[in-house]
Design goal:
By secondary structure, this protein is of the alpha+beta class. It folds into 2 domains: 133 residues, Phosphorylase Kinase, domain 1 (2-Layer Sandwich); 176 residues, no CATH class. The chain has 7 helices and 14 strands. A hairpin with a 4-residue loop joins strand 8 and strand 9. The protein starts with a helix and ends in a 6-residue tail after the last strand.
């Protein structure tokens, strides 16, 4: 049975009908995949929370399993049932049901893989690890604005990969981890701002601390101009693949982890069909005279500040790219 939101909803509804018959059970389940490693739809009896449950042989230690309670999903403590270890993930936010079905379907693909148990379990736990990183900050797929922002970061990542190799590129890419600036190079920082040519030529600053004069690590703004281009442009999955093709297997593991932090997983690639071309990328050095709001002078009580910078006003601060050999 393909695992879709409707299929999960149907399984959960069937289980709900049996909850009155539960006698001391922690969860009730309906198997979706049978085998040495299994996958079930489950309902927790005490509160009716819906989820999925992975059955693995007790001999498998599941060392990569971690208990976490994110806003949308809960990774629960392992349970034991005869010779099986039960790993439950519960849906805490019903608004995330669609993405949760994608999660279940992705795990089903790993579980159905025709390979030895050890290899299968390593692949399964790797997939769970990527989804765990995704769920830390996301309950849904990326918005179109977030897609454009990620494409801009991938554009700069590609330049670093070409000039300095994937190891340095991966190490310097900090945007997915929520750090203040998207790229940390040894001698400077780069903050990437994407903008689309259908809009006014401007970029948005969502954190005033990003745009300051720093004598230790000069800060550069990379303004990446995108245009919708259904004929010659590339969608987000295409851009991800183009970069991954220039990495070895260990570098791809790091790349996938960064992408998961940013809200992108390869199994969700069908969600991202819009194609964009990068028309131009220009760099501005933040120095004396650059227009910005000094975060040290923002009055107390203001807890959120976002402003726009017109690119025309930044022309005096244009400079050659700091990313060089």
């Amino acid at each position: 049975m393909p695992i879709t939101p409707k299929a999960l909803e149907k399984a959960w509804k069937a289980i709900h009908a049996k909850t009155g018959q539960a006698s001391g059970s922690h969860v009730l389940e309906q198997a979706l995949i049978h085998g040495e490693v299994g996958l079930s739809a489950v309902i927790r009896v005490k509160d009716g929370m819906q989820g999925i449950l992975i059955r693995v042989p007790m001999r498998w230690k599941c060392l990569g399993w971690q208990v976490h309670r994110f806003a949308g999903v809960h990774f629960e403590p392992p349970l034991q049932d005869n010779n099986d270890r039960l790993l439950a993930v519960m849906l805490a936010d019903t608004d995330a049901e669609g993405i949760f079905a994608n999660f279940a379907a992705d795990l089903a693909t790993a579980i159905s893989s025709p390979c030895p148990l050890e290899e299968k379990m390593i692949g399964l736990m790797d997939r769970i690890g990527l989804w765990r990183r995704f769920f830390q900050n996301h309950n849904q797929g990326l918005s179109e604005e977030e897609v454009r922002g990620l494409i801009g970061e991938l554009e700069i990542l590609g330049r670093l990969l070409l000039l300095h190799g994937a190891d340095l590129a991966m190490d310097s890419w900090r945007g997915p981890q929520g750090e203040l600036h998207d790229f940390h190079l040894p001698d400077f920082r780069v903050e990437v701002k994407s903008w689309i040519n259908e809009s006014l030529p401007r970029i948005f600053i969502s954190n005033p601390s990003q745009i300051v004069i720093d004598g230790t690590w000069p800060i550069w703004v990379a303004a990446v101009q995108l245009s919708k281009d259904h004929a010659l442009g590339s969608n987000l999955p295409d851009r991800v693949k183009a970069l991954a093709d220039n990495m070895n297997s260990s570098q791809r593991v790091v790349f996938d982890a960064h992408l998961s932090d940013a809200g992108y997983l390869s199994c969700l690639s069908e969600m991202y069909t819009h194609r964009y071309s990068v028309r131009e990328t220009v760099f501005y050095l933040i120095e004396e005279g650059f227009p910005f709001i000094d975060p040290t002078k923002v009055p107390s009580g203001i807890t959120c500040l976002k402003y726009a910078l017109e690119l025309g006003a930044l022309a005096p601060f244009l400079a050659p790219s700091p990313i060089k050999k």
